Amino acid sequence: MPADAALRAATLYRQADEIFVRQIAKHRHDQKTYLNAARESQRIFEAVMRAELPPNPADDSLPPPVGKQD
Question: Could you say which DSSP state residue 51 is in?
């Protein structure tokens, strides 16, 4: 994998991971819900990491973070 693609993948992963951590933290007092949310996020991350990244955009900017709203 080219270095720029690896950097983009790592950045996207980190952004999504921060969002998922905040989401599952809301359930820290309910072990069953917390574990289910953690398993679901792990399943999503595995699928994302196996997926091929789209080609570099012309301006080489990253897409908005997953789950971010303006």
Answer: S
Would you give per-residue pLDDT tens digits along the chain (70 residues)?
Answer: 788 888 888 888 888 888 888 888 888 899 999 888 888 888 887 887 777 655 555 444 555 555 544 4
Nearest Cα neighbor of 45 from 25, 27, 62, 66 is 66
Domain spans of the chain? 24-52
pTM, two decimal places: 0.52
Question: Quick one: which of 29, 32, 50, 30 has its CA closest to 40?
Answer: 32
> CA torsion sign, 18 to 21 to 23 to 26?
negative
